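retry 2 of 3: previous attempt timed out while embedding cobalt (II) ion. Reduced batch size to 1 and resubmitted. Inputs unchanged:
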Amino acid sequence: MIGRVNHIAIAVPDLDAAEKSYGETLGAQLSSRQALPEHGVTVVFVKLPNTKVELLHPLGAESPIQSFLDKNPSGGMHHICYEVDDILAARDKLLAGGARVLGDGAPKIGAHGKPVLFLHPKDFFGTLIELEQV
Ligand code: CO
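retry 2 succeeded.
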């Protein structure tokens, strides 16, 4: 069901420092910043030959990233995003298998303008999973 790794997301407490680290120290190509108020984040994509890394920074008072950074003040890996062909079929199969989908279960539009869903980390070995329909 799942396909390629679309991206790996890292929550960062300081977006300027993360851009400098990935852009200069690690010498990667970066996207411009993108504010996603519906998700409570500002994102920057690190473009790699085989995938992307998503740098996540809290946006707004209700950001889900803030509580993660409260527990991990220096930042940390936040989620991994796998591609799926049909997000509603994937969701229904997961729900039928007992996995928990976060929120109301309806896909939201993610950073690439495509539908995304998040799966409960406790159902997947402590890792938050994002599914993106491509
Ligand atoms: Co993501």
